[in-house]
Amino acid sequence: MTRQMPVVDYLVIDDGPPHLAGHRCDECGAVYLERRNACAACGARTFSPTRLPATGRIESFTIVHRGAPKHVGPFVSVLVRLADGTFVKANLVGVPPEADAVDFGVPVRLVTYAAGTDDDGTEAIAFGFTYDEPTAPAEG
Ligand SMILES: [Zn+2]
């Protein structure tokens, strides 16, 4: 079986469905994805690990084009407000990188995908968000 490793520390792929893990301030409840020495909101210095919801809404987006020498894109970079209010920046996947295709407030959910494989065969797992389509009713 291929070994997998998340591309960022806060993506958890080996404990149930993939999800993001944050650090919740023990004093005021502010959540940060990256480890901090002190809370930006209240200055407290102790945090507890917290599992973040996999769904949220698009708060803001940018369609990114990068030119030479390493032509990249276009792709859609989104700022997502998760269901618990935590903000996460990521790419929007499965959606055309066109202004008409993206909108504020659209419900999205976390998805993971293989971002490459190293020489040892370890697969890098990245995350993004895609439109959280309602499940189609079963036919019949
Ligand atoms: Zn705090």
Task: Describe the protein's architecture and organization.
The chain is mostly beta strands. It has one domain. The protein is 0% helix and 49% strand. The strands form two sheets. A five-stranded mixed β-barrel has the order 6-7-8-10-9. Strands 2, 3, 4 and 5 form a four-stranded antiparallel β-sheet that branches. It is globular and about 40 Å long. It starts with a strand and ends in a 9-residue tail after the last strand. Bound molecules: zinc ion. Zinc ion binds next to loops.
Gist?
The chain is mainly beta.
Q: Order the strands across the largest sheet as they lie in space.
A: 6-7-8-10-9
Separation of termini?
Answer: 38 Å
What amount of the residues lies in strands? over 45%
Query: How many helical stretches?
Result: 0
The main pleated sheet reads as: 5 strands, mixed, barrel
Summarize the helices and strands and which ones pair or pack:
Layout: E1 4-6, E2 11-12, E3 19-25, E4 31-32, E5 47-51, E6 55-66, E7 72-82, E8 87-92, E9 107-117, E10 123-131
Parallel strand pairs: 1-10, 8-10
Antiparallel strand pairs: 2-3, 3-4, 3-5, 6-7, 6-9, 7-8, 9-10
The structure holds zinc ion.
